[in-house]
Amino acid sequence: MPLKMKKRIIALIVGAVVFLVLFIWIIWANKALELNTYTVESKDLPKSFNGFRIAHVSDLHNNKMGKNNKKLLDMLRSSKPDIIAITGDLIDSRNTNVNIALQFVEEAVKIAPCYYVNGNHEARVSEYAELKKGLNELGVVVLENEKIEFERSGEKINIIGVIDPSFKTDYLFGDSTSVMQRNLQILIDVDRYTILLSHRPELMKIYANNSVNLVLSGHAHGGQFRFPLVGGLFAPSQGLFPEYDSGLYIEGKTNMIVSRGIGSSIIPLRFNNRPEVILITLLDK
Fold first, then answer.
1. Burial call 83-92: b when 16+ CB within 10 Å, e when fewer
2. Any residues with CB less than 8 A from the CB of 102 and at least 6 apart, and which?
3. 190-248 pLDDT, tens per residue?
4. 197 within 8 A of 143, measured Cβ to Cβ
5. Rounded to two decimals, what is the model's pTM?
6. What is the C-alpha separation between 237 and 243, in angstroms, rounded?
7. 225, 233 in Cβ contact below 8 A?
């Protein structure tokens, strides 16, 4: 066999092996749920909330991590959170299954009190009414432009949840900024430490302008495809190379933590972007 032909065959074999390994890694990584932890300090946090733990789950999109979401639930149990925050897109508008969502939540409420806000996918489907009813019956606190007081040892913080702007305005071309601003103006109490559950990270400047202490968000799916030194490639409502795609962002007194989420929607695969649960510990400064 000519040397040139041998080199071509070797190159093809090497290429095939590399492709196969990459393919297997991508498939594995899309189900390799990981726990990421953050610590958020604030001088506004009441001392009795020092060490308060929040598990943050976002963008499940009817996905399952293990049979009946066992892997996800086990991770939440081992985290020992004081509350669980679910920040939207619990269901997927293209493959809606309310039962999967409620089966997960039925077990999650046994771990810790659950607080939920909707996302843009809930805004698209008639099944949202069924989902909301089921969540309420299971004891989940569904926050639709509402504020609740959470008390510990006589001290209080506020937990606020806002309806996704898609319920009030067009998802692609509507003015989400004005919708969010109106909602927060009514709900914010600047004299009390406030945790905001909101699906949309791209509205960070609105949250900061309203002096929210901690925002928990999702929606960006980590940019779907992640690259070293670059970050996410594309996120809904932000486009290419999104500013807010994953992790902790700080502006003024506002800390925002964006979850990469668990499921996928239009694009069924993530690249270098494992699904995640976030555990946040609050500390007084």
1. bbbbbbbbbb
2. 131, 134, 135, 138
3. 899 999 999 999 999 999 999 999 999 999 999 999 999 899 999 999 999 999 999 99
4. yes
5. 0.93
6. 11
7. yes
Task: Work out whether the CA dihedral 161, 167, 169, 171 comes out positive or negative.
Answer: positive
> Interhelix angle for 128-138 vs 98-108, to 10°?
20
Q: Which backbone phi and psi does 175 adopt, to 5 degrees?
A: -95, 85
- Please tell me the distance from the alpha carbon of residue 158 to that of residue 194, in angstroms, as a whole number: 5
Measured CA to CA, the distance from residue 38 to residue 24 in angstroms comes to 30
Between the alpha carbon of residue 132 and those of residues 121, 127, 171, the distances in Å are: 13, 9, 21
Question: Is-contact 134 142, C-beta < 8 A?
Answer: no
**Distance, CA of 69 to CA of 28 (rounded, Å):** 16
Residue type, position 180, single letter: M
